[in-house]
Specification:
Blueprint lengths: L5 E8 L9 E8 L6 E8 L4 H17 L6 E6 L7 H9 L2 E2 H6 L16 E6 L2 E7 L14 E6 L1
Parallel strand pairs: 3-4
Antiparallel strand pairs: 1-2, 2-3, 4-6, 5-6, 7-8
Helix pairs in contact: 1-2
Length: 155
């Protein structure tokens, strides 16, 4: 969903063995009154570390195929309880996690009722950020077992 025009989208298959169906939804959004195209990637990575590592490599490859000056946002459930994605995405694709930029580490998001694990992330490249925050559960608690995240993106 977007209030801005989505000019193109693709669902990229990133399954790695097993039965977990995984993908990256890649949308291109035209920024109004601007020649800038914003690339948004929505992800849900696998539960096994080997699968996540392979999926992160595929994600980095996709990001590196985009124009180098293009603003990019990646958000979703990384299932990265060992917190390895930050270093990989920074080193391989120049992506920076918004909560780590502000607080030194990702936000706690799981389980939503009493968040302990830092599974969900928002990464940016070629974009500024302000006000990263976890959203209060009410009235959203029925939508997910993960706490929602938000950030203002500045282009």
């Amino acid at each position: 969903l977007s209030r801005l025009p989505i000019v193109d989208y693709q669902n990229r298959y990133i399954c790695v063995g097993g039965r977990e169906k995984r993908g990256i939804l890649h949308c291109q959004i035209q920024v109004p009154d601007s020649p800038v195209t914003l690339h948004i990637l929505c992800v849900h990575l696998g539960l096994r570390e080997a699968h996540r590592s392979a999926q992160l490599r595929m994600m980095c490859q996709l990001v590196n195929e985009l124009p180098p000056e293009a603003p990019v946002v990646i958000a979703g459930d990384f299932n990265d309880w060992r917190q390895r994605a930050n270093a990989i995405l920074k080193r391989e694709a120049g992506m920076e996690e918004v909560f780590s930029r502000k607080n030194g580490r990702p936000a706690r998001t799981f389980p939503a009722r009493f968040p302990l694990l830092r599974l969900d992330r928002i990464y940016v490249r070629n974009a500024g950020i302000s006000h990263p925050q976890t959203i209060p559960l009410r009235p959203w608690a029925h939508l997910s077992d993960h706490a929602p995240l938000a950030v203002e993106i500045h282009l």
